[in-house]
Design goal:
The protein is an alpha+beta fold and 303 residues long. It folds into two domains: 158 residues, D-Maltodextrin-Binding Protein, domain 2; 114 residues, D-Maltodextrin-Binding Protein, domain 2 (3-Layer(aba) Sandwich). It has 13 helices and twelve strands. Strands 2-1-3-11-4-12 form a six-stranded mixed beta sheet, with helices on both faces. It is globular, with a radius of gyration of 22 Å. The protein starts with a helix and ends with a helix.
Length: 303
């Protein structure tokens, strides 16, 4: 009996010790800062993540702040400077952060759809009434990219256009950066640009479709004339120098979000009916993006 009691006591002490250890990160991180990139305007970004913030605070037991910046690089630099702990990044922005921090960040989760797919597509969009039906029609026209650190809004379309024999810097009359996906699509709608690079998840879900839902543009005004190969969904990214228990707590909270609070999950996925939670991912899935960005950087230096 004495041995049994001693074993039970040791088990209890171990459990309490483990619990205390698991809570240690809360003493160091009383506020968790979570970065969101600029796919849409800042006001809508903040509003869309209000419920998400409350959910994370409830799950983690600490204050959560959403961090936004005027460009993708602002979020990347915030990660590199340890100003934020986590961020939702596109694949190219993750690659930028990985390079900038010399491997100091890691992907932990990525979105998956109901069919098990975990990717999306870059598209080149035009006004449906423009008469542009193919890339050949855009020769000598203005193509707006989204942001230098955007996967679907710059890196993938630029890389693939070159592979198709099109040098964007000479094929188009100008290739400005709009600053954000929505800005580029709105620029096409307002005839500021002839075309823009953005993304879709499916034919029913993506940036143009979201803008229609939000009342920013009418339905049937924006058409896609080019589509990339599938791109792996950008990851939820964590700094590697964070406590493992903190990373695991955030990972668990996000993986359980669709079940725990379907309304919040629907809000942050813009009502995408195909979205079906998260899967764990590793850096290996994004190494080709790191290499693609390196190729693009070398091309710009040569130019």
């Amino acid at each position: 009996m004495k041995n049994v009691l001693m074993t039970m006591a040791a088990t209890a002490v171990f459990a309490l010790s483990g619990s205390a250890h698991a809570q240690e990160w809360k003493q160091q991180y009383k506020t968790i800062r979570y970065g969101i990139t600029s796919a849409e305007n800042e006001k809508d970004r903040v509003a869309r993540y209000k419920g998400f913030t409350a959910y994370l605070e409830k799950q983690l037991g600490v204050k959560v702040e959403i961090f936004t910046a005027g460009s993708y690089d602002g979020v990347v630099q915030a990660l590199a400077a340890d100003q934020i702990e986590f961020a939702n990044l596109g694949s190219s922005a993750y690659a930028a952060a990985y390079t900038e921090t010399k491997g100091g960040v890691e992907p932990i989760l990525a979105q998956v759809d109901k069919e098990g797919a975990s990717g999306y597509y870059s598209v080149i969009s035009v006004r449906c009434d423009s008469g542009y039906k193919s890339l050949a029609d855009l020769k000598g026209k203005v193509l707006a990219f989204a942001d230098p650190d955007s996967t679907s809004g710059y890196a993938v379309p630029y890389f693939n256009l070159v592979k198709e024999g099109i040098d964007p810097t000479t094929y188009f009359s100008a290739v400005p950066f709009s600053g954000a996906h929505e800005t580029g699509v709105m620029g096409v709608f307002n005839k500021q640009f002839d075309a823009t690079a953005t993304y879709i998840n499916t034919e029913k879900s993506g940036i143009p479709q979201r803008m229609v839902t939000k009342g920013m543009i009418p339905a049937g005004e924006i058409c896609n004339i080019w589509k990339s190969p599938e791109i792996t969904n950008g990851p939820v990214t964590a700094r590697k120098n964070l406590p493992a228990d903190l990373i695991e707590a955030v990972k668990t909270a996000l993986r359980e979000l669709p079940k725990n609070d379907p309304a919040v999950y629907k809000e942050i996925t813009s009502g995408d009916e195909t979205a079906d939670g998260y899967i764990e991912v590793s850096h290996d899935r994004y190494q080709w993006i790191v290499e693609m960005r390196d190729w693009l950087r070398k091309q710009r230096r040569q130019g």
